[in-house]
Design brief:
Length: 64
Amino acid sequence: MSEIINLKQARKKRDRDAKDKDSAVRRVQFGQSKSDKKIVDISLTRLSKKLDDHKRTPSNPLDD
């Protein structure tokens, strides 16, 4: 005798699997590699440090 399945659950599982497959394709297509993320992080850190170095007012008002 064959196994009885719930059609609603089977449909949801099928749809979920299709979304997961599409998501995996999109991650590869549009995602950033680890090295790209690291380069962006380093450049943002450098830019923020450069901006902070050029401040005209002290960060602590008690330093006057």
